[in-house]
């Protein structure tokens, strides 16, 4: 018993000794601080946010692309852009993340776009209303009013919430889509540099696949902030067609989802760009009586304040005919893949008895749904811009193949930009390692 008491006393002495030693190591006038749990400005999301541009919707044959705040109508305030199997539409519910462990569902309405070109899959808008007293940051779709397991779903961030600190752009160009290892490097660089000179602030490009040289070029433009690349792996999920006619081109979805990406780009730009140019990479929206697009649109806006869609004719410059002088057949560009747009100065007059090809400059806040050649749903009117005021320069294969060279019109508008264009293109190519000083 005495031995046990002795051991207890020794143990108690050692505990007291170590406590005194710890306190003696604390500097004078220093308080012991017990660490508090970290507080985050935003709660950690209890689910997985989709990191892809195309997200399969579980228990369906559909795909989600992106979600946007849209308060322009009274019956909904959230719009989800998707790719839907048109013969498999089912009741859906929007499931909102409203805050930490506060989630609610509301019924959803599915609107298929008319521009599906008879393909099995087509663009769709899913519309729903955010629950009361909910300031949702994320949303997903369910096939039943409540989820079995929240962890099974990938959620989309809700975009287009107004940010007063974000700088508003004047012009965005939407390009859809790159596919088939597209590697037309020289024309791409020239087109982007012309758009810079015309006052464009940003170009959004949806990329399924491009060649290695073009990828290097676009990486440089992305790093400087002029190009925004959106990876678009549509061929991972569907068999996209390489054309627009289902009877001819077959497949699941028209032209690599062109209509989907155009609409996604319009909504992506809605709160950050005043105007959006909808065209292809081999086209340039070119003003002929103004030095840039900003002065053109300022004039058009004053005269036509209610216009949502400014429709421009697209005129083909066949790349089979060349400027005979060879003035712009520059030695430094000879080993760069692609078309030299400065060499093509002959323009087709469109056959006005046939289908006229139009592309658009739109005010994104006034667009609800767009197609390739027109805007079928908008909060405004359409104005057809006179072709001699502004038109798309389309460097392409001949559309009117029966026309001979002497029947084409000479058009050297692009030459007006050559003084700044050529050195700017050289810098972009050199930055990508595609132009050497010895060239």
TrEMBL record:
Enzyme class: transferase
InterPro entries associated with the record: Glyco_transf_92
Subcellular location: Membrane
EC assignment: 2.4.1.-
Transmembrane stretches, start-end: 9-26
UniProt keyword terms in alphabetical order: Glycosyltransferase, Membrane, Transferase, Transmembrane, Transmembrane helix
Pfam families: Glyco_transf_92 (PF01697)
Membrane topology: Single-pass membrane protein
GO molecular function, one term: glycosyltransferase activity
GO cellular component, as recorded: cytoplasm; membrane
Source domain of life: Eukaryota
Main location group: membrane
Similarity annotation: Belongs to the glycosyltransferase 92 family.
Name of the protein: Glycosyltransferase family 92 protein
């Amino acid at each position: 018993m005495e031995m046990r008491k002795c051991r207890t006393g020794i143990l108690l002495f050692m505990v007291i000794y170590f406590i005194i030693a710890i306190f003696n190591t604390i500097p004078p006038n220093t308080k012991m601080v017990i660490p508090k749990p970290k507080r985050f400005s935003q709660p950690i999301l209890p689910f997985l946010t989709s990191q892809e541009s195309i997200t399969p919707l579980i228990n369906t044959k559909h795909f989600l692309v992106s979600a946007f705040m849209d308060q322009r109508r009274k019956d909904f305030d959230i719009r989800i852009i998707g790719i839907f199997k048109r013969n498999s539409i089912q009741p859906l519910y929007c499931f909102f993340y409203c805050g930490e462990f506060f989630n609610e569902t509301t019924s959803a309405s599915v609107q298929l776009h008319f521009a599906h070109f008879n393909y099995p899959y087509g663009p769709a808008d899913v519309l729903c209303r955010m629950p009361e007293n909910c300031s949702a940051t994320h949303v997903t779709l369910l096939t039943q009013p409540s989820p079995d397991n929240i962890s099974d779903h990938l959620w989309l961030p809700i975009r287009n919430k107004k940010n007063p600190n974000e700088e508003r752009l004047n012009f965005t160009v939407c390009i859809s889509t790159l596919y088939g290892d597209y590697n037309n490097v020289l024309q791409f660089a020239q087109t982007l540099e012309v758009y810079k000179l015309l006052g464009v602030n940003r170009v959004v490009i949806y990329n399924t696949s491009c060649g290695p040289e073009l990828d290097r070029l676009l990486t440089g433009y992305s790093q400087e902030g002029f190009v925004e690349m959106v990876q678009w792996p549509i061929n991972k999920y569907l068999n996209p067609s390489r054309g627009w006619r289902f009877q001819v081109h077959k497949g699941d979805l028209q032209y690599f989802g062109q209509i989907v990406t155009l609409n996604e780009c319009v909504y992506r730009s809605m709160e950050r760009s005043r105007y959006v140019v909808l065209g292809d990479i081999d086209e340039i929206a070119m003003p002929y009586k103004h030095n840039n697009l900003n002065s053109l649109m300022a004039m058009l806006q004053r005269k036509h304040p209610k216009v949502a869609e400014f429709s421009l004719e697209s005129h083909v410059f066949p790349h089979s005919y060349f400027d005979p002088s060879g003035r712009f057949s520059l030695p430094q560009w000879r080993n760069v893949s692609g078309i030299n747009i400065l060499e093509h100065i002959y323009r087709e007059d469109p056959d006005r008895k046939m289908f006229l090809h139009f592309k658009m400059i739109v005010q994104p806040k006034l667009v609800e749904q767009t197609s390739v050649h027109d805007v079928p749903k908008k909060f405004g009117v359409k104005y057809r811009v006179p072709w001699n005021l502004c038109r798309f320069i389309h460097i392409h294969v001949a559309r009117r193949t029966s026309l001979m060279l002497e029947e084409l019109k000479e058009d050297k508008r692009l030459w007006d930009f050559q003084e700044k264009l050529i050195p700017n293109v050289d810098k972009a190519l050199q930055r990508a390692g595609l132009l050497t000083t010895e060239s």
